[in-house]
């Protein structure tokens, strides 16, 4: 029992020391200069699904990394500083992302995070980044929440066109050209899928209830078999198939629709627009007839469309960069995630240039949220302006419709600007 | 063997106080000497220590293999997240509640599990692990579906001047320490002896008057309680959960933690928790993922697998078994009279997976 008293005393002392030291430590953390920038480097970090079922998205990081390498090796970096790009694996699992975010901020001492991929994974750490005042910049997800919640989360910003906007574009096209359509909707049962559905409904307006004959859903990690969903939508009498699904599910759904004799007009979300996906589907079906005429949209130039972009300087730069630094990114551009990665990296580099030598997180974020005005992105459609203002926090908002023909997309119509109207 | 447990309990105090004291010094030292990422990781270690403690009771002591304890973590996690986010309940109150709800589910699952043994039970619980994510997604009006549930980060109470990570660290380790004690006591009690008897031979246990169904169901319930508390704690630490947080990988990592830490060993779960949290991190660093210009294969899974294989090759009884073996060898060397007989038994003696704890006992007896 004497031992117990002594033990208690030791414990109490330890506890007091702990609290005192804790106070000291957090006190010294308060005076903070911005880490991640040295005389000759700027360190950026990102969380990506490097492993796991969503690892095909990793190409976005490869495309971005290739462009940074190009800037480092051939342009001497940004204002004399080389970009160091650290990618860590969260396997697209939101339970992993919080530790990874801290790893980047505390362990790797990144200046900011750029291009973190995925809606749920970014939601999992939005509070953390905003508390720490570390930019969660140009997150790679088309959810509309990043721009919409800007006033509550000023350290978080998206980049690509959002899904609601894209849904509205399809709706407008449907009402203009094929007003009598009956639409069957397949969507992933989460915020991303619902954004697309809501965009479609909003675009159709009063007619939405009458035109949408039925909806079917699946969940993110379900087995990839959409046959029952497709049968359900076919049975509803729909002649139009609106697909808001990720690549594997979208490809399976279209294959099923063609195989069971349903011949709908297909609207494919941009998320699953990679040409490689549809070339695979056409190959699997043995003919392109069922896929031909499928409508999608894009905000990027498509290097596979050599007739249109064969001599384009931006596309040439893409091939050049990927040939030399691609690290798995095919210079042909069959993997559109490589293209979007490089396109957003271009904006990132521009932003750092714009910041000049005032490389504080606050300054960079102020420019990103409200003062972007990039007109020369080599991989976005001509005329696209990457722009933010004090009231508009959606950087890329211009898209063009495209139609599938045999083995590639053919863009048509004008570039549509969601900022107007 | 059942008698030594009782004999040991008097001896236990002297031999556990010193390591416990060392453990306490280390525990208080960690958050004061590490950066907030490492502190956060060590808070996660405590979460997994709690979960593996529960799995160790079920699998290591009562001999029932469960691949589905991630499901019980999901019950705890969603209990906490929904109560905190929707009803504003203080999160500390939700932690025991998460454990109790999970325990109830554990008993319900434990009853049909009575009919299954060995690999068949493993498969049934495997199905449980697979079902979690789809079920959570399916009832999305209640669970929030794939959009997940977001909570405000837990701030240190009473105006304590701790960083968020430090507070989470102390909270998790306090819970782990509180739950370590009953687990330790259970193992040495009549219940623990009953579990081990069932594990080592059900027929013999029945012949000795042990109620198999009662003790097996009890093991499931208690194990699920630990998993539920771990799930609640994890939700508090992560502040955001969605159905994908409870993938099959979670259940598997619990089993990895239990086996690599040392099944049927008291300290195994602590080592298991360390392994589950830090080994993937080491594997990722080893895979060279952290290069500037992405010039790597980017396959951390493979590195993780290789590290696991190496560990299991050199420590088939888990890290706790390895430590016990090293300790025995050290004692023998110090006694100087190690002799050939001992040396031989060292090399010949196989290390049955679940006997690390018992093998320590003869040594304790001989001192």
Architecture overview:
The complex is a heterodimer of chains A (421) and B (367). Chain A has 421 residues and is α/β, with parallel strands linked by helices. Chain A has 2 domains: 41-161 and 311-398, Response regulator (Rossmann fold), CATH 3.40.50; 164-298, Response regulator (Rossmann fold, 3-Layer(aba) Sandwich). Chain A has 16 helices and 14 strands. Chain A has helices spanning 2-30, 58-74, 97-107, 119-123, 126-132, 145-148, 163-177, 191-204, 208-211, 227-235, 247-259, 275-285, 306-309, 313-325, 336-355, 361-370, and strands at 41-48, 82-89, 112-114, 136-139, 156-158, 183-188, 212-218, 240-244, 265-268, 295-298, 373-374, 386-387, 398-405, 408-417. A 5-stranded parallel β-sheet of chain A has the order 2-1-3-4-5, sandwiched between helices. In chain A, strands 7-6-8-9 form a 4-stranded parallel β-sheet, with helices on both faces. In chain A, helix 7 runs parallel beside helix 8, helix 11 packs parallel to helix 12 (275-285) and helix 15 crosses helix 16 (361-370). Residues 16-33 of chain A have low confidence and may be disordered. Chain B has a two-stranded antiparallel sheet. Chain B folds into 2 domains: 2-269, no CATH class; 320-366, no CATH class. With 367 residues, chain B is mostly helical. Chain B contains 16 helices and 2 strands. The radius of gyration of chain B is 21 Å and the shape is globular. In chain B, helix 2 (36-61) packs parallel to helix 7 and helix 7 (164-188) crosses helix 8 (190-200). Chain B has helices at residues 2-33, 36-61, 69-87, 91-113, 118-138, 140-143, 164-188, 190-200, 202-207, 212-238, 248-261, 268-286, 300-314, 318-335, 339-348, 356-366, and strands spanning 149-150, 240-241. The interface between A and B is large, with 62 and 59 residues.
Order of helices and strands of chain B: HHHHHHEHHHHEHHHHHH
Number of strands of chain A: 14
Q: Helical amount among residues of chain B, as a percent range?
A: over 70%
Ends distance of chain B: 18 Å
Helix tally of chain B? Answer: 16
Low-pLDDT windows of residues of chain A: 16-33
Largest sheet of chain B: 2 strands, antiparallel
Strand content of chain B: under 5%
Helical content of chain A, roughly? 40-55%
Low-confidence stretches of chain B: 1-7, 290-297, 338-367
């Amino acid at each position: 029992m004497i031992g117990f008293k002594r033990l208690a005393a030791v414990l109490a002392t330890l506890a007091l020391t702990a609290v005192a030291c804790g106070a000291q430590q957090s006190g010294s953390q308060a005076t903070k200069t911005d880490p991640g920038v040295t005389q000759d480097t700027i360190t950026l970090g990102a969380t990506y699904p490097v492993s796991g079922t969503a690892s095909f998205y990793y190409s976005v990081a490869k495309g971005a990394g290739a462009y940074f390498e190009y800037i480092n090796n051939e342009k001497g970096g940004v204002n004399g500083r080389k970009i160091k790009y650290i990618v860590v694996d969260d396997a697209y699992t939101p339970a992993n992302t919080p530790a990874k975010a801290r790893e980047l901020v505390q362990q790797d001492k990144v200046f900011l995070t750029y291009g973190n991929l995925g809606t749920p994974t970014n939601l999992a750490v939005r509070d953390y980044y905003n508390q720490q005042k570390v930019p969660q910049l140009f997150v790679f997800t088309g959810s509309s929440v990043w721009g919409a919640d800007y006033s509550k989360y000023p350290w978080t910003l998206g980049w690509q066109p959002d899904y609601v906007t894209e849904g509205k574009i399809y709706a407008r096209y449907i009402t203009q050209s094929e007003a009598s359509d009956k639409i069957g909707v397949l969507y992933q049962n989460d915020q991303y899928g619902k954004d697309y559905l809501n965009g479609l409904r909003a675009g159709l307006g009063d007619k939405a209830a009458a035109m949408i004959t039925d909806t079917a859903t699946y969940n993110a990690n379900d087995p990839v078999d959409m046959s029952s969903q497709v049968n359900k939508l076919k049975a509803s009498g729909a002649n139009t198939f609106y697909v808001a699904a990720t690549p594997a599910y979208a490809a399976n759904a279209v294959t099923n629709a063609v195989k069971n004799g349903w011949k709908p007009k297909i609207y494919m979300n941009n998320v699953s627009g990679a040409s490689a996906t549809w070339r695979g589907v056409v190959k699997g079906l043995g003919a392109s007839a069922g896929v031909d005429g499928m409508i999608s949209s894009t905000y990027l130039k498509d290097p596979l469309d050599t007739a249109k972009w064969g001599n384009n300087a931006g596309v040439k730069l893409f091939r050049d960069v990927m040939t030399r630094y691609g690290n798995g990114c095919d210079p042909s551009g069959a993997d559109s995630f490589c293209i979007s990665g490089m396109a957003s990296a271009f904006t990132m580099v521009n932003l750092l240039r714009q910041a000049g030598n005032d490389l504080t997180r606050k300054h960079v974020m102020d420019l990103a949220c409200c003062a972007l005005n990039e007109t020369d992105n080599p991989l976005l459609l001509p005329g696209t302006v990457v722009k933010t203002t004090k009231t508009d926090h959606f950087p890329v908002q211009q898209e063009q419709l495209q139609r599938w023909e045999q083995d590639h997309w053919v863009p048509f119509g004008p570039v549509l600007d969601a900022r107007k109207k | 063997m059942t008698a030594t447990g009782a004999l040991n309990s008097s001896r236990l105090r002297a031999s556990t106080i010193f390591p416990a004291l060392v453990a306490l010094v280390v525990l208080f030292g960690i958050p004061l000497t590490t950066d907030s990422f490492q502190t956060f990781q060590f808070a996660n270690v405590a979460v997994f220590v709690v979960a593996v403690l529960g799995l160790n009771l079920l699998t290591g002591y009562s001999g029932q293999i469960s691949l589905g304890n991630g499901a019980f973590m999901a019950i705890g996690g969603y209990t906490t997240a929904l109560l905190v986010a929707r009803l504003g309940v203080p999160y500390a109150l939700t932690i025991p509640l998460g454990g109790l709800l999970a325990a109830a589910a554990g008993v319900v699952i434990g009853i049909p599990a009575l009919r299954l043994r060995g690999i068949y039970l493993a498969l049934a619980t495997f199905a449980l692990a697979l079902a979690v994510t789809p079920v959570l997604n399916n009832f999305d009006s209640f669970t929030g579906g794939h959009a997940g549930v977001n909570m405000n980060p837990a701030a240190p109470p009473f105006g304590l001047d701790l960083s968020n990570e430090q507070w989470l660290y102390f909270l998790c380790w306090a819970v782990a320490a509180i739950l370590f004690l009953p687990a330790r006591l259970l193992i040495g009690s009549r219940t623990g002896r009953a579990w081990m008897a069932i594990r080592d031979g059900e027929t013999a246990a029945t012949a000795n008057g042990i109620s198999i169904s009662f003790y097996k169901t009890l093991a499931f319930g208690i194990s699920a309680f630990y998993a539920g508390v771990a799930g609640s704690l994890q939700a508090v630490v992560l502040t955001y959960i969605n159905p994908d947080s409870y993938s099959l990988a979670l259940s598997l990592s619990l089993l990895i933690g239990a086996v690599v830490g040392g099944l049927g060993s008291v300290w195994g779960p602590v080592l298991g928790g360390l392994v589950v949290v830090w080994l993937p991190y080491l594997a990722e660093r080893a895979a060279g993922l952290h290069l500037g210009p992405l010039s790597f294969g980017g396959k951390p899974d493979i590195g993780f697998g290789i590290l696991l294989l190496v560990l299991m090759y050199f420590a088939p009884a888990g890290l706790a078994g390895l430590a016990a073996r090293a300790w025995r060898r050290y004692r023998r060397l110090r006694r100087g009279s190690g002799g050939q007989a001992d040396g031989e038994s060292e090399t010949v003696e196989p290390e049955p997976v679940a006997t690390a704890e018992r093998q320590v006992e003869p040594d304790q007896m001989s001192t």
